[in-house]
């Protein structure tokens, strides 16, 4: 597994690769055996990137960022579902952690997708952006990706902008 941006909060170049012992051992041997995984990168072990990564980890631990994000993820998903699950053009609202995906459909019961040429997700994105909220439209799915440190009052405001933006393009009564 490769990890990067989050290690330093996106402020410094830094990445790492995690692997299982089995994979690691497949490349581990005496140099003369030629089994080594020969690679390196310009920023490998750069001291400033390493310090930034250590400080980010410290903040995550001390401020209990992940624990708070877990609670807020449940709050956000529950709020989105309460506000949008009955909308006739919302087929599904799914999530992993704080990332929520709102599937936009022509028909809720058949889950028929909108014609991609209509760019419904992009239209909603533009309305939300004009109100200060960044959503990520990927086809007919709107992704809601708030920061780990979002507060409940910010979630409330963001969800309301999201709901209003969806309703402006896809009114509940069509």
Task: Describe the protein's topology.
Blueprint: E1 2-3, E2 16-17, H1 21-26, H2 47-62, H3 65-84, E3 90-96, E4 99-107, E5 112-113, H4 120-130, E6 136-138, E7 141-144, H5 152-169
Antiparallel strand pairs: 1-2, 3-4, 4-5, 4-7, 6-7
Describe this structure in words.
The structure is a single chain. The chain is of the alpha+beta class and 174 residues long. It has 2 domains: 2-62, no CATH class; 66-169, Aspartate Aminotransferase, domain 1 (Alpha-Beta Complex). Helix content is 41%, strand content 17%. The chain contains 5 helices and 7 strands. The strands form 2 sheets. Strands 3, 4, 5, 6 and 7 form a 5-stranded antiparallel sheet that branches. It has a two-stranded antiparallel ribbon with strand order 1-2. Helix 3 (65-84) packs parallel to helix 5 and helix 4 (120-130) packs across helix 5. The N and C termini lie far apart (45 Å). The mean pLDDT is 91.
């Amino acid at each position: 597994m490769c990890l990067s941006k989050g290690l330093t909060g996106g402020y410094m170049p830094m990445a790492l690769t995690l692997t299982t012992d089995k994979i690691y051992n497949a490349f581990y041997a005496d140099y003369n055996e030629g089994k080594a995984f020969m690679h390196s990168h310009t920023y490998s072990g750069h001291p400033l990137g390493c310090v930034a990564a250590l400080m980010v980890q410290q903040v995550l631990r001390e401020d209990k960022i992940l624990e708070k994000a877990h609670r807020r993820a449940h709050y956000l998903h529950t709020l989105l579902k309460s506000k949008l699950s009955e909308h006739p053009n919302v087929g599904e609202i799914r999530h992993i952690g704080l990332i929520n995906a709102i599937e936009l459909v022509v028909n809720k019961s058949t889950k028929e997708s909108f014609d991609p040429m209509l760019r419904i997700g992009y239209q909603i994105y533009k309305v939300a952006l004009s109100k200060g909220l960044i959503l990520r439209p990927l086809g007919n799915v709107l992704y809601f990706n708030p920061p780990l440190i979002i507060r409940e009052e910010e979630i409330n405001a963001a969800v309301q902008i999201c709901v209003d933006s969806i309703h402006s393009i896809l009114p509940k009564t069509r």
